[in-house]
Design a protein that fits this description.
about 80 residues; alpha+beta; 2 strands; about 35% helix
Length: about 80
């Protein structure tokens, strides 16, 4: 009865799952450009294939680089899970 759908999928060794709040995509740099899904996919694709912590750290560093000195007005949460 809930308006939510559930998904089932297999998670194989090496697969990752990135969970994040909207701030990751919507935060804007000094020129007003959001990081967006393109920025996220680009950072994710370049992230080292090491631990989940290392991958997430790379993505966040790329996000911060994109923002430069712009102020972030929203809360930010991200979690990356990786199956061994």
């Amino acid at each position: 009865e809930a308006p939510y759908r559930s998904l089932k999928f297999k998670v194989r060794p090496g697969d990752t799952l990135l969970l994040y709040t909207d701030c990751l995509l919507e935060a804007r740099n000094e020129e007003g450009q959001p990081f967006g899904s393109e920025g996220l996919l680009s950072a994710y694709g370049r992230a080292p294939d090491d631990s989940a912590a290392d991958m997430l750290q790379y993505i966040i560093e790329d996000w911060r680089f994109h923002l430069g000195d712009a102020e972030v007005a929203d809360d930010f949460t991200a979690m990356l899970l990786k199956r061994k």
